[in-house]
Protein: Cytochrome c oxidase subunit 5C
Amino acid sequence: MAAHKIAHASYRGPSVVKEILYGISLGLLAGGLWKMHHWNNQRRTREFYDLLEKGEISVVVEEE
Structure:
């Protein structure tokens, strides 16, 4: 019988450089989303206090 030569894929393990780049990318993405969330909250709070200062809204319930 003839010996069969079959190419087998060998597992080389994780690439450290790829893992670092993936981690940095995910970290920057998550940080950007978190920062946008906080900017949105800050904008809404600023709008609330601006309207409160102008007298357009009130936090006191009017009694009838």
In short: The two ends are 102 Å apart (CA to CA). The mean pLDDT is 89. Residues 17-57 form one domain.
